[in-house]
Amino acid sequence: xxxxxxxxxxxxxxxxxxxxxxxxxxxxxxxxxxxxxxxxxxxxxxxxxxxxxxxxxxxxxxxxxxxxxxxxxxxxxxxxxxxxxxxxxxxxxxxxxxxxxxxxxxxxxxxxxxxxxxxxxxxxxxxxxxxxxxxxxxxxxxxxxxxxxxxxxxxxxxxxxxxxxxxxxxxxxxxxxxxxxxxxxxxxxxxxxxxxxxxxxxxxxxxxxxxxxxxxxxxxxxxxxxxxxxxxxxxxxxxxxxxxxxxxxxxxxxxxxxxxxxxxxxxxxx
Length: 270
Ligand code: IPD
Ligand code: CA
Ligand code: CA
Known about the structure:
Fructose-1,6-Bisphosphatase, Chain A, domain 1, 2 domains, globular
C-alpha cells in the first residue's frame, strides 16, 4: 500500500503507469519505432508523443484548472499564468530507449508557483515507483527512502550527464569531470537524469550534477532528493535550478564538497 494518499499523487501514478505500458509495448518492437531528430542529438519517437498524450489526458480530466508543461507539446500562454503546473517528461532517456538500453523513465511533477510539490518517477523496466510530496517524505514502491550516509566526496559514487547538446559548456564540463574523476570514488553517466536523481534519493548514488537540463528532467527528481534528506541547488548554491537548468545534488556532506568543485570550475569558465 502506498503511504501517500494525496489525490495529485494517485492520479499522477495512474498516468505514469499508463504511459509506462505504452512504453513497454513499444520496447518489444523497437524495430518499428519512428524516430525524428528535433535538433542534433535530440530525438523524439512516436512513443514519447503517445506516452505524453496519455499522461496529459488523464491529468487534464482530473485537474482542468491546472497548467501543463510537457516536453513534447510545450505550453500555452494562458497556462503560464496557472498557479499549479504539471511538469512532464513522458520518456526521460529517449536515446537509451531507442537503443534498448534499459535505463529510462516517466517523470511527472506538480509545481505550485514554480516549486515542486508532488513528484512521481516510474521506471517501466524495473517497475520501481518513486513518489514524494513536499513535507511528507520520499518513497520507493511504498518504502520510505533516504539519501545515503556517505560523508566524503572521496567515497562518493556520482551521477552526471554530458553536455552533448550545448557544446558551449564543454570546456567547463571537462574541467569538472577532470577534477571529480580524481576526487570521487567514481562517475556514472546512465542517460536518464530523472532516474539519476531518483537514485540519489534512494542512496544508489551519493551525488549528481549536470549542466543545461530542462525543468521536466528534474522537477520530480529534485523533490525526491529533498524529501529523502538530501540537498539540491543551482551552480550558485541557490534554489533556481528549474530556471537555470544547472543542478548539483547529493547527501548533505557530499553536496557541499561537490558544489565547491562545480562552482569553482563554472566561475572560472572562459
Ligand atoms: C535527457 C536525459 C539525459 C540528459 C539530457 C536530457 P530526454 O532527456 O535526461 O540524461 O543528459 O540532458 O535531455 O531527452 O531523454 O528526455
Ligand atoms: Ca528528459
Ligand atoms: Ca523526454
